[in-house]
Design brief:
12 strands; disordered N terminus; 350 residues; alpha/beta; 11 helices; Isopropylmalate Dehydrogenase; single chain
């Protein structure tokens, strides 16, 4: 977040609330928010969303949870602990609480996008400490005419100053055992491979290094996974490692970044895994494509997984799961990943 001179009346950064976006109104986002609030995990947070949708979620979960409607995030300090504090951005649309649960709807997509836009505006204005986003549905966004395929791309565009190029950002998925950062994100596999560049890999390593410093690591150890089987086997199975990945690692190392590789992608995640009695060899793994990097993390379980967008001028985290339309409205959604995302946000934005 941009620095500014703070008057005596302004709160410190640590005293600012987290800004939690509602996500898709037809999914489980509102329910996991309600459960997290009832557990006392959102006592320093303001939820940006529709009051009716959130009250419906509270009822679906069978909770006795007071809900306070605020005009501005700064009013959070006046709310008692154990309160679900809600700010309703202008332009959310009508009748969101009556939308069918578990179904793609353009109105839900538009409302989700509006909450994200307001969260970015407020965090950039110094009214929030960090952003935590509940799950959105990409089809609902598209149906609403939102031109971004997901959170990452939308946040990147919103973070850019007027007329400026968007900042380079990367997706990190993390849990207690692995942290994985991606060079490419939401592209078909064929397009992702074509999109790989030496500079893009160097940028990813620099962004990952900075994230490690923010997490308190003095010299983050970054393993770089190859793209091809056996990391190309000296060019026998592809030459991306020789042409792009190895030169990028050398450039990053020349900048003081503790990057190494490229390693065979079928074993590097096991080496990096920080398991009980077997500390990982690396603090991060950088992977070239979306599924290549995220399958190992998600295999370990999504309950504690956190999605972090690196490279933004503010902190943004999210649960490591989607809208779960199949169980929406049943009150059984597990809030663990959202709770982990709020805790990660606090750690990255102290």
């Amino acid at each position: 977040m941009p620095s500014h001179t703070r008057s005596a009346a302004e709160p410190s950064h640590a005293a600012l609330p987290l800004l939690v976006t509602m996500g898709d109104a037809a999914g489980i986002g509102p329910e996991i928010i309600a459960k997290a609030a009832a557990a006392g995990e959102l006592d320093d947070a303001v939820v940006l969303g529709d009051l009716g949708v959130l009250r419906r979620a509270v009822a679906a979960c069978g909770l006795l949870l007071p809900v306070a409607v605020l005009e501005h995030p700064r009013d959070r300090a006046a709310c008692p602990r154990g309160t679900l504090a809600v700010c309703m951005p202008a332009g959310l649309g009508e009748g969101l609480a009556a939308l069918p649960l578990g179904a793609v709807d353009a109105r839900a997509g538009a409302a989700a996008a509006r909450c994200i836009e307001q969260a970015v505006a407020w965090v950039r204005a110094g009214a929030g400490r960090a952003i935590v986003t509940a799950p959105i549905h990409k089809e609902a966004l598209a149906a609403a005419g939102v031109r971004y395929p997901g959170h990452t791309e939308m946040l990147q565009a919103l973070a850019a100053a007027q007329g400026a190029e968007p900042p380079p950002v990367r997706m990190m998925l993390a849990n207690d055992q692995l942290r994985v950062v991606l060079v490419t994100i939401h592209l078909s596999l064929r397009r992702a491979i074509d999109a790989l560049t030496e500079q893009g890999i160097v940028d990813t390593l620099a962004i990952t290094h900075e994230a490690g410093l923010r997490l308190g690591l003095a010299s983050p150890r970054i393993a770089v996974a190859g793209l091809n089987p056996h990391a190309g086997e000296g060019g026998l199975f592809g030459d991306e490692e020789i042409r792009l990945i190895a030169p990028a690692i050398e450039r990053a190392r020349a900048q003081g970044i503790a990057a190494s590789g490229p390693y065979a992608p079928d074993t590097v995640f096991m080496r990096a895994r920080d398991a009980a009695g077997k500390p990982g060899e690396f603090d991060f793994v950088v992977a070239m494509t979306h599924d290549h990097g995220l399958i190992p993390v998600k295999y370990l379980g999504v309950e504690q997984g956190v999605n972090v967008t690196l490279g933004l001028p503010f902190v943004r985290t999210s649960p490591d799961h989607g809208t779960a339309f199949d169980i929406a409205g049943r009150g059984i959604a597990d809030p663990a990943s959202l709770v982990a995302a709020t805790r990660m946000a606090r750690r990255l934005a102290p």
